Amino acid sequence: MGFLVTSGIFLLAGIVGCLFSLLCCNRGPSTNLFHLTLVSTATVCCWMMWAIVYLAQMKPLINPILSGE
Q1: What stretch of H or E contains 33?
Q2: ∠ at Cα 51 (12, 21), nearest 5°?
Q3: Residue 16 and residue 29: Cα distance in Å, rounded?
Q4: Residue 68 scores a pLDDT above 80
Q5: In sequence order, which residues have a C-beta less than 8 Å from that of residue 55 and are 6 or more positions away?
Q6: Burial (Cβ within 10 Å: 0-12, 13-18, ≥19) of residue 7
Q7: How buried is residue 1: exposed, middle or buried, by Cβ count under 10 Å (0-12/13-18/19+)?
Q8: Quick one: pLDDT at residue 69?
Q9: Among 9, 15, 21, 31, whose CB has the most other CB atoms within 10 angstroms?
Q10: How far apart, in whole angstroms, are the C-alpha atoms of residue 38 and residue 59?
Q11: Contacting residues for 20 by C-beta, under 8 A, at least 6 apart
């Protein structure tokens, strides 16, 4: 899968997580904002971790050294 497709999947997962937290944990405006902030932050952190690992594989800093055998 490409970078944009997987980024879209993360975006969709974040939206579904936010909607799920609104529907299942509806306890007031400040608590809802706190839940949305937690879900959004967790989604962005997971996406950033995936993106860093994905992009690091495209141009590695250390090239593998082949043995002469």
Answers
A1: helix 29-58
A2: 30
A3: 19
A4: no
A5: 3
A6: middle
A7: exposed
A8: 65
A9: 21
A10: 32
A11: none
Q: Provide the 8-state DSSP code for 67.
A: P
Model pTM score: 0.79
Structure tokens at 43: 């989604």
**pLDDT level of residue 11 (50, 70, 90 thresholds):** very high
Burial of 10 (0-12, 13-18, 19+ CB in 10 A): middle
Structure tokens belonging to residue 14: 């974040």
Least confidently predicted of 32-36, 44-48, 61-65: 61-65
